[in-house]
Specification:
This protein has about 50 residues and is an all-alpha fold. The protein is rod-shaped and about 45 Å long.
Length: about 50
C-alpha cells in the first residue's frame, strides 16, 4: 500500500464523515429535533420555506 493510496483513503473517510454529520444536522433541523430559536429557523412555523 503506497502513501498516496493511504492518504486518498483517509480523505474519502473524512469526507464521508462530514457528509453524514451534515445530513444528520439537516434532518434534525427539518424534523424539529433541534429547536434552538424558532425565529432563526422557520422550518416548522413557515411551510413556504420548503416551497422554493
Amino acid at each position: 500500500m503506497t502513501d498516496s493510496y493511504q492518504r486518498g483513503l483517509v480523505l474519502i473517510i473524512l469526507a464521508l464523515l462530514i457528509l453524514i454529520f451534515l445530513a444528520f444536522l439537516g434532518w434534525g433541523f427539518a424534523s424539529g429535533v433541534f429547536q434552538l430559536q424558532p425565529e432563526y429557523y422557520p422550518l416548522k412555523t413557515d411551510p413556504s420555506f420548503f416551497q422554493w
